[in-house]
Design goal:
By secondary structure, the protein is mainly β. It contains four helices and 22 strands. The protein has an eight-stranded mixed sheet, with no helix packed on it. The longest helix is centred in the N-terminal third of the chain and has 11 residues.
Length: 378
């Protein structure tokens, strides 16, 4: 690592490079790429195998098997195998005018290439498709220690797994996943204000459990006929065990009905719609766990539904070689004046690209990390 002698030298370098300093689109960066041949469950190749990008999309190829330990799954006959996923995400996701409902099966992908599903378990009370079962109640006893399980041969999660980072309340959570509309999913912590100011807080959902003892109406106020009623709230069917036991209250928390908000994040200093994975005071995931029942953006085709997740690029693509250095804000594999410019030009601000350690403010701690990494990425 080259030595840096004086702060005046740093300022001179910054002045020479500020004009050229620029960010790289974030969707190529956060993936856990397996560059060592690491294996997971039953010796299968683990995590993301490659990341490619073109002018329009980022293509993420993964095995669907995590490198962390998984299993066993009591009373579940399924067993994960390699899925050979190839998901495509838009470089420039577009907010939807009319939200699209999330469907069954995978609705997004974690940074390690493992998929996540919506809050339901694809079953409903008396098979009427009215009171939909919450997987966090009806399937929780079949989850492993990573809070996942297989659906047939597809290992997946319904909520944030503790095996990935994001639980530090003093730092903005990193990107944990991407929904298939192309917007990122963060852990539970973000900036207090949408403009990136106010420090780091727990981002709260605007969903809550309804105040009901009888399941005779839906969250939107629809009154049901007797044949459509769900079971009364009881110890067998406690409040929260059905999706329809929850209601959205605008303004109750920081997030909208899709469990997202438009905000500045360390990865998107100009702002983006971002989903968050909320937790309660004990750090336990709360409904809707990842994203709501609708996508906030326009859904990309080819990622959802039967037989999906095997996209072939239809544009010229470049293979992203490796993981980013912590302080390499412009992704040129060198920690240099351009990266320094990104820190100093945002000095004192509430996060964004210069907030290397994600503590909610660009300050000397970030500069220390940058200087310690100065030079070529290893």
């Amino acid at each position: 690592m080259n030595s840096i002698t004086t702060f005046s030298t740093l300022i001179a370098i910054t002045a020479a490079t500020t004009a050229s300093a620029q960010s790289v689109f974030p969707a190529v960066l956060p993936w856990k790429i397996n560059t060592t041949g690491q294996t997971g469950f039953q010796g299968f190749a683990a995590d993301v195998q490659s990341v490619r990008y073109g002018a329009t999309y980022v293509y993420v190829a993964s095995s669907g098997i995590p490198s962390y330990s998984i299993g066993p799954w009591p009373n579940n006959p399924g067993s994960p195998i390699v899925q050979n996923w190839s998901f495509r995400l838009p470089r420039n996701p577009v907010p939807a005018t009319t939200p699209t409902n999330v469907g069954p099966g995978h609705i997004g992908v974690y940074i390690n290439g493992v998929t996540f599903f919506n809050p339901g378990d694809a079953r409903s009370y008396n098979n009427l498709n009215i009171w939909h079962q919450n997987a966090m109640f009806f399937e929780v006893n079949g989850f492993d220690s990573a809070l996942g399980h297989p659906a047939g041969t597809e290992y997946h999660h319904h909520q944030r797994t503790p095996q990935l980072p994001g639980g530090d309340p003093t730092h903005h959570s990193p990107i944990l996943a991407y929904a298939f509309d192309g917007f990122p999913v963060y852990g539970p912590f973000g900036f207090a204000n949408a403009d990136g100011t106010g420090g780091v807080i727990k981002i709260t959902t605007s969903y809550r459990q309804r105040n009901i003892t009888q399941r005779t109406s839906l969250p939107n106020g629809t009154q049901l006929t007797a044949s459509q009623y769900g079971p009364p709230v009881s110890t067998t069917y406690p409040l929260g065990c059905y999706i329809e036991d929850h209601e959205y209250v605008a303004g109750l928390g920081k997030l909208d009905s899709s469990n997202a908000r438009f905000c500045v994040t360390p990865d998107y200093p100009n702002g983006t719609y971002a989903y968050f994975s909320p937790v309660n005071e004990s750090g336990i995931s709360v409904y809707p766990y990842m994203i709501g029942l609708t996508y906030r953006g326009v859904l990309v085709t080819g990622n959802t539904g039967p037989g999906s997740g095997h996209n072939t690029p239809t544009e010229t693509v470049v293979t992203f070689c490796c993981t980013a250095c912590e302080a390499d804000t412009d992704l040129n594999r060198i920690i240099d004046g351009a990266d320094l410019a990104n820190v100093l030009s945002r000095w004192g601000g509430g996060g964004g690209m210069g907030d290397i350690n994600r503590d909610g403010i660009v300050d000397a701690a970030d500069l220390t990390v940058l200087l310690a990494a100065w030079g070529n990425c290893s």
